[in-house]
Each structure stands twice: as structure tokens, then as C-alpha cells.
Specification:
By secondary structure, this protein is an all-alpha fold. The chain has three helices and no strands.
Length: about 70
């Protein structure tokens, strides 16, 4: 089977930029929390945020503070 028999390529899925940015931010925060064993002070340092700003972003993005949640 060659590429011509598959038909035209589908255009990439474009999502609203705000949604994409929130998904990336949430993923990065979750990775930092996992890497630091949920030490929020250390996670904030890794992300280049103050601890207060990290807490605000966690709340705004709906990230559970309980690692088992």
C-alpha cells in the first residue's frame, strides 16, 4: 500500500490556544510534583515559580494536592 492509496493527509487538530497552554502547564506541574515526591516547595523551584504562585496554579488547574487522589 502506498501513500497515494490512503487519500489526502488530515490537517493537524487545532485546539484553542488557552486549552493547550493549560494542558501543558498542568502536565508540567504534575511531573514536577512526581519528580519531587510531592514536595511543593521543591516543585516550585524546579518550575521557576514562587510557592504561592504554584499553589494558585494548582488550584486554578484543579490539580489534586493529595498524591493518591
Amino acid at each position: 500500500m502506498d501513500a497515494r492509496s490512503l487519500g489526502p493527509a488530515l490537517p493537524p487538530l487545532i485546539k484553542p490556544l488557552e486549552q493547550t497552554l493549560q494542558e501543558v502547564e498542568k502536565d508540567q506541574i504534575q511531573q514536577a510534583l512526581e519528580q519531587t515526591k510531592h514536595n511543593r516547595t521543591e516543585a516550585a523551584r524546579l518550575l521557576g515559580l514562587t510557592r504561592a504562585k504554584l499553589y494558585r496554579r494548582i488550584e486554578a488547574l484543579g490539580i489534586p494536592l493529595d498524591p493518591d487522589a
